[in-house]
Write a structure and sequence with these properties.
heterodimer, A: 185 residues, alpha+beta, Umud Fragment, subunit A, 3 domains, 7-stranded antiparallel sheet, 4 helices, 35% helix, elongated, B: 138 residues, mainly beta, Immunoglobulin-like, 4-stranded antiparallel sheet, 9 strands, 56% strand, disordered N terminus, SPC3 (chain B), Signal peptidase complex subunit 3 (chain B), transmembrane helix (chain B), membrane (chain B)
Chain lengths: 185, 138
């Protein structure tokens, strides 16, 4: 078959001429790519112990360290103690959005039970206003992970896709078209 | 790294509130190339107090923090600083507590990469007095 790029009119001709077997083959190729990506993601969840090993920073409450759009890599090892100064990602009970802030106070009992308070570097006050009604402390179960590494700007793509769904569909359409029409020489 | 502290506790209903004033002298550039290499965007410095009480085996409270950007003066020379945040205990464990350890630590924030947490060498042990102070104002 041909291996070089073809002009647009020829593409549609190709589609019609592609027999069923070739189409199924391309779809399977596509499914394999998607499955591999999912497996890598699940693998990361297992290795890091965190339900969400990579998060995107959504607000400016940790500036100037992290800005909206930065990517954070988390671990959530069970035996890792929570200590003052660490950057944790947590979820308030009942809310979906994870928050990335710093631990500023901990009180830990002998049996390992710990309660702690967080605050964004760029905020004037601690996070008590963000917690649930009547909740004054966070516990281990609220933690999604600890920030271990970070990459600037890379997460912006996710934010754009969330804010402009048309962009997300366009991107998916382009990716789908590319994979379906790409032919192995 | 040197710290001098003067402190007292005030009665505040159910929990002890500690007041600490301190001096900090630190030279972050001690090592040959210093800690600010090409991949360090900033340091998040914080002074934390660590102690044990009857109620809790381990307590840590951040008293003060500062962001030091690459390019800022790496020498810290602070005198008579008051703690930036309220030093509440979970209970009454500050009164008469002889062993509160103050340590200066920092979080290295790179331009990209790992986020290490470093504890400075040199820490100061501070005792709180046995009685509540009611005359001093803060």
């Amino acid at each position: 078959g041909r291996c070089r790029g073809v002009p647009a009119m020829d593409l549609f001709g190709d589609l019609r001429r592609m027999n069923k077997r070739q189409l199924y083959y391309q779809v399977l190729n596509f499914a394999m790519i998607v499955s591999s990506a999912l497996m890598i993601w699940k693998g990361l969840i297992v290795i890091t112990g965190s339900e969400s090993p990579i998060v995107v920073v959504l607000s400016g409450s940790m500036e100037p360290a992290f800005h909206r759009g930065d990517l954070l890599f988390l671990t959530n090892f069970h035996d890792d103690p929570i200590r003052a100064g660490e950057i944790v990602v947590f979820k308030v009970e009942g809310r979906d959005i994870p928050i990335v802030h710093r631990v500023i106070k901990i009180h830990e009992k002998e049996n390992g039970n710990i309660k702690f308070l967080t605050k964004g570097d760029n905020n004037e006050v601690d996070d008590r206003g963000l917690y649930k009604e009547g909740q004054n402390w966070l516990e281990k179960k609220d933690v999604v992970g600890r920030a271990r590494g970070f990459l600037p700007y890379v997460g912006m793509v996710t934010i754009i896709m969330n804010d402009y769904p048309k962009f997300k569909y366009a991107l998916l359409a382009v990716m789908g078209a590319y994979v379906l029409l790409k032919r192995e020489s | 790294l040197r710290k001098n502290v003067e402190d007292f506790t005030g009665p505040r209903g159910r929990s002890d509130l500690g007041f600490v004033t301190f001096d900090v002298t630190a030279d972050i550039l001690k090592r040959r190339h210093g800690i600010f290499d090409w991949n360090v965007k900033q340091l998040f410095l914080y002074l934390s107090a660590e102690y044990s009480t009857k109620n809790n085996a381990l307590n840590q409270v951040v008293l003060w923090d500062k962001i030091m950007l690459r390019g800022d003066n790496p020498r810290l020379f602070l005198k008579d600083m008051k703690s930036k945040y309220f030093f509440f205990d979970d209970g009454n464990g500050l009164k008469g507590n002889r062993n509160i350890t103050l340590t200066l630590s920092w979080n290295v924030v790179p331009n990209a990469g790992i986020l290490p947490l470093v504890t400075g060498s040199g820490h100061v042990s501070v005792p709180f007095p046995d009685i509540y102070e009611t005359t001093k104002s803060y």
